[in-house]
């Protein structure tokens, strides 16, 4: 099947800065795709390249099989929802949503009807007469979404669209965006630096660092089988195990990663176990995070808060399944 968006050896350099570097990527039609990475890793530049606000310095981008080179943004069948929403304060909600259709020369009755439908889609029916200034942050976010959906793009680009919302609203909107995407079947490309958001919403995630993609995969693959230390560290937290440790338990001299929740902490154990001393206890709500000193190695474990949690200074033993140690591809 033709990918919705295809990057072939795409680069975007700004002088010496390689914002995007020799990137190969296919985004599948109809998928919810997340671009995840730290600030400055090139995610926004990738979105702008797809939208056509930015031109590659090398390589080619295709949108549904057509080369995007020389195609202006408004002819790309792609819309963007910006983090700051970019609504026109002097226009009411209905005219904000209908704006793209007006630019295309579509008559008032028709474009207002389409705008009403888009507002219903984002759960804001009847809000058309208000000004953006009379809406909450979450409602403005929905208006921006309706405006981007009104002319039925094939690809919707979302640049940290939930960044300005408080946690509770953010979680609600994550669920809503996801079900909206599934209902509409439009390809969503979502930029975020929040790993929880990427894992919970996306069908596939690309992890960016320094203008390059470190790994692309399902949330489960990215979390459970990180290929590099960077991915293991950036997506959730992970214990990095040096080759000596890994050799002892897995027989291979490689770096490994072990998730904090895969470590069981007890006062006594039968079978093979690691002796440790609790050097820190942090209560996180549902879970408690323990810092554990063992064999010259500091490990972190996450245990459910409801159970008996050891205290700082306690001697404990750690057990885990060998399978939970994930071997890294890279040598270091
Ligand atoms: P954030 O999460 O902070 O938005 P990002 O991952 O989206 O970061 P980009 O905005 O794509 O990162 O930027 C990647 C790199 O390219 C950064 O080092 C940035 O400073 C640089 N960059 C982006 N746009 C320009 C520009 N117009 N001129 C010069 N450098 C730029």
TrEMBL record:
Keyword list, A-Z: ATP-binding, Nucleotide-binding, Transport
GO CC aspect terms: ATP-binding cassette (ABC) transporter complex
Coiled coil: none
UniProt domain ABC transporter: residue ranges: 5-235
InterPro entries documented for this protein: AAA+_ATPase, ABC_SmlMolc_Importer, ABC_transporter-like_ATP-bd, ABC_transporter-like_CS, Mo/tungstate-bd_C_term_dom, NA-bd_OB-fold, P-loop_NTPase, Transp-assoc_OB_typ2
GO biological process: putrescine transport
Similarity field: Belongs to the ABC transporter superfamily.
Name under which the protein is recorded: Polyamine ABC transporter ATP-binding protein
Organism: Mesorhizobium hungaricum
């Amino acid at each position: 099947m033709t990918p919705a968006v295809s990057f072939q050896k795409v680069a975007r350099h700004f002088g010496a800065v390689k914002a995007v570097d020799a990137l190969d990527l296919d985004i599948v039609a109809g998928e919810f795709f997340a671009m995840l990475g730290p600030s400055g890793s090139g995610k926004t530049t990738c979105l702008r390249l797809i939208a056509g606000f930015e031109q590659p310095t090398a390589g080619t981008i295709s949108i549904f099989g057509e080369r995007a080179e020389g195609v202006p943004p408004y002819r790309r069948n792609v819309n963007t929802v910006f983090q700051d929403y970019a609504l026109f304060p002097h226009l009411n909600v209905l005219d904000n949503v209908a704006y793209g259709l007006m630019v295309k020369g579509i008559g008032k009755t028709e474009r207002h009807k389409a705008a009403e439908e888009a507002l219903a889609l984002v759960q804001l029916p009847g809000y058309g007469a208000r000004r953006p200034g009379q809406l909450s942050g979450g409602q403005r976010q929905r208006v921006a979404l309706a405006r981007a959906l009104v002319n039925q793009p094939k690809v919707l680009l979302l640049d940290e669209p939930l960044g300005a919302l408080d946690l509770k609203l953010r979680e609600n909107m994550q669920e809503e965006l996801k079900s909206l995407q599934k209902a509409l079947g439009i390809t969503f490309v979502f930029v975020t630096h929040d790993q929880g958001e990427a894992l919970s919403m996306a069908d596939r995630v690309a992890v960016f660092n320094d203008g390059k993609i470190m790994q692309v995969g399902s949330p489960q693959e990215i979390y459970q089988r990180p290929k590099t230390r960077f991915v293991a560290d950036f997506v959730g937290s992970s214990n990095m195990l040096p080759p000596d440790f890994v050799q002892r338990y897995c027989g291979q001299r490689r770096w490994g990663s072990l998730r904090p929740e895969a470590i069981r902490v007890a006062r006594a154990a039968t079978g093979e176990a690691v002796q440790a001393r609790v050097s820190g206890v942090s209560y996180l709500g549902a879970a408690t995070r323990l810092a554990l000193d063992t064999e010259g190695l500091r490990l972190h474990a996450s245990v459910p808060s409801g159970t008996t949690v050891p205290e700082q200074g306690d001697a404990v033993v750690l057990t885990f399944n060998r399978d939970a140690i994930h071997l890294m591809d890279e040598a270091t």
